[in-house]
Design a protein that fits this description.
The protein is mostly helical. It is built from 16 helices and 4 strands. The protein has 2 domains: 42 residues, no CATH class; 327 residues.
């Protein structure tokens, strides 16, 4: 088999556990290693520094934030969801690094009781000021309903877009340019590219809503890639990822948070929100044959937190509790205004891709424009 040739028959990577069951972008080399883990491993030492170099970069970041914001009330903004990554970063920032943090939580109406407790306990114990923003519930649910009817993979696009739009708007209003992101290499270095789409494609969002929506979405904050890039250039808004500067270990982080504030784990990555959980373990799996655990577990294999054999054992476990999921689906359908019969018809219908609807032209040229801009500004090192 030649390197880089896409497989027509089923194949699973011999190093991580990514497979070609639902992803036409995956390729395998002549050793059976996939492009995902090969690319991720090549990034260690480029974006991930779980060593002295990382500590140096972290200390430089902390010192810069303190200096830049010495005359302000806060050093940075952090988003907090009640999930592990954002909670651990907030804990480190406030308790270990001594940063003055303004925590921002976007409540879309689907927070689990566990996430609510985690947010409250963490902010109270770490003495972090928390600001909660609630998007217009009717329009948010109507947009989510439109996405379900459209039958596209990234059902979380409205959720993710509205979240970051609210964050960016708040940062500009407060005059704070640094958003410390909980995004990280250790648990997210592998993300499937097939059956997904850019959440910042506002043209796609508006087109899907115009076709399937029943309401305007003029009360929702939306953020396009173009606006995000403009903000990063003109307003110097940045989103550093400090978890890439430490040896970030899931089990160790959970233990520390539990001992610090009674943090509770919610079962798996991204399951701290009912809507996100439905998308991750039900919608993707039953509509697009995508088991999101393969990406999450493969990331842990690459970062040395799990063996391939351990990951394969996890895949043998049920994706979710049937009774619990049934209750959660009924709750979501009630919120978005869909009957069970309508939902079952949608699940049986042929899946769609985001490209079946209008998409942003900017996305296609964005990488090239950014690269040219960096060259012109002398930032191409």
């Amino acid at each position: 088999m030649k390197e880089g040739i896409k497989m027509t028959n089923y194949q699973r990577c011999s190093r991580c556990i990514m497979d070609n069951k639902s992803d036409n972008t995956i390729t395998f080399d002549n050793t059976g290693h996939c492009n995902y883990c090969t690319e991720a491993l090549s990034q260690i030492g480029k974006v991930y520094f779980p060593n002295e170099e990382g500590d140096k970069r972290l200390q430089e970041l902390i010192a810069r934030l303190r200096k830049e914001n010495k005359n302000k009330q806060y050093d940075c903004i952090m988003g907090i969801s009640g999930g592990l990554d954002s909670s651990y970063l907030a804990y480190l920032g406030a308790v270990r690094w001594g940063l003055r943090i303004l925590a921002l939580h976007v409540d879309d109406g689907y927070d689990t009781e566990i996430s609510k407790r985690n947010i409250r306990r963490l902010c109270e114990t770490a003495k972090i000021r928390l600001v909660t923003i609630k998007p217009d519930a009717k329009q948010f649910n109507e947009l989510t309903r439109a996405y379900i009817l459209a039958g596209v993979p990234n059902l979380a696009a409205p959720q993710d877009n509205v979240l970051f739009a609210c964050v960016y708007k708040f940062m500009k209003e407060q005059g704070i340019r640094t958003f410390l992101s909980g995004g990280n290499f250790a648990l997210e270095c592998i993300l499937q590219r097939g059956n997904t789409h850019d959440a910042n494609d506002v043209r796609n969002i508006r087109d899907i809503n115009s076709r399937f929506g029943r309401e305007k979405i003029d009360k929702l904050q939306l953020l396009s890639n173009l606006q995000r890039d403009i903000d990063s250039r003109l307003l110097r808004i940045e989103s550093p990822r400090p978890l890439n500067y430490i040896d970030y270990n899931r089990e160790r982080a959970l233990k520390e948070l539990n001992e610090f504030c009674g943090f509770e784990y919610y079962g798996s990555k991204h399951l701290e929100n009912t809507l996100t959980k439905f998308i991750q373990v039900y919608w993707f799996y039953h509509k697009f044959n995508v088991d999101k655990r393969t990406s999450h577990l493969s990331s842990m294999i690459v970062s040395g937190q799990m063996s391939r054999e351990e990951a394969l054992k996890v895949l043998q476990e049920p994706l979710y509790d049937e009774k619990e999921m049934e209750e959660e689906i009924n709750y979501i359908l009630k919120c978005v205004g869909l009957s069970r019969n309508e939902f079952e018809s949608i699940m049986k219908a042929s899946p769609k891709q985001h490209t079946d609807y209008k998409t942003s032209s900017y996305i296609k040229v964005r990488k090239t424009l950014i690269r040219i801009t960096r060259i012109l500004l002398g930032m191409n090192k």
